[in-house]
Amino acid sequence: MAKKFVIFGNPVEHSMSPKMHNCAFIELGFDGVYYKYLLEDGAKLKEIFLSENLTGANVTVPHKEAAYKSCDELDDFAKKVGAVNTIVKKDNKLYGYNTDAPGFLKSIKKFENIKTILILGAGGTVQSTSDILRDAGYEITILNRSSNRLANFEKKGFKTFSHNNFKPSNYDLIVNMTSAGLSDNNLPAPKEILDKILPNSKAFIDIIYGKETPILKLAKEYNIPTLDGKEMLLQQGVLAFDYFTEHKFDLTIVESIMREALN
Ligand code: NDP
User: Fold this and answer.
1) CATH number for the domain running over 112-224
2) Domain 112-224 in the same topology as domain 3-98+231-262
3) Pick the CATH number of 3-98+231-262 from 3.40.50.10860, 3.40.640.10, 3.30.1510.10, 3.20.20.120
4) Which protein residues touch ligand 1 with a CB less than 6 Å away?
5) What global pTM score does this model have?
6) First CA to last CA across the chain, in angstroms?
């Protein structure tokens, strides 16, 4: 019988994960099927995972913390960041992983000579990616709309600013990790700030995908090399597939199948 996988989220309709994973299952001859599951109550994740008889799942907004709480075992990195986006069932236990952060790290390798990074936002994704980026040798500054969420990052030794006290400097890479522009037309920071920093940067990434956000449009107007969130989506998906299929496949092949599926 085919192994079953889902993406849990709310909303989930827009997700491109089923397309990526189903194409890879078919092309690699793996007997699996992957579909969307609209999950309203994150507290029910484990119950539904078991009653649907799933082998694995991805988890998207807003259930990554609920997923973390639902797992019986967590890998060290998921434990450290407190968020799970990939779950695999083994011997009736749910194992939780986080492939968002290593996926993002892989996606920035597309650009060369990056040393300093300014991250816009201080939410869940920044929580999971900032440590891994710093451990990989990047110098990280975090700029968030409000100051509430910054204390935690300051404690960990990150340089942080809110819009009110920002002192611009030169950054090789600027990354939008806010949800500004996802379902509205907002910039993630005042335009006066962005006009000071974007022209001096070597690259810009928006981790939102499926639309051209106002800041992505602005970065393109400054002729900076850009990427949208599809690359991160792809890279986290390749790593999740590796867990789902117990490391049986060559990931460069998985990546090229999934890339084609996304395009
Ligand atoms: P959170 O809800 O945890 O954090 C949201 C952040 O955005 C906060 O820092 C918040 O600031 C800021 N923000 C929201 N609205 C605005 C605004 N109008 N102006 C300025 N700042 C704003 O979100 P996540 O970290 O879970 O997700 C962030 C984005 O990343 C989402 O758009 C999500 O879709 C995307 N994403 C993409 C992935 C991919 O694979 N491509 C993977 C994971 C996430 P404040 O603290 O002031 O409220």
Assistant:
1) 3.40.50.720
2) yes
3) 3.40.50.10860
4) 61, 100, 121-125, 144-146, 149, 177-180, 182, 186, 188, 207-209, 229, 232-233, 236
5) 0.93
6) 30
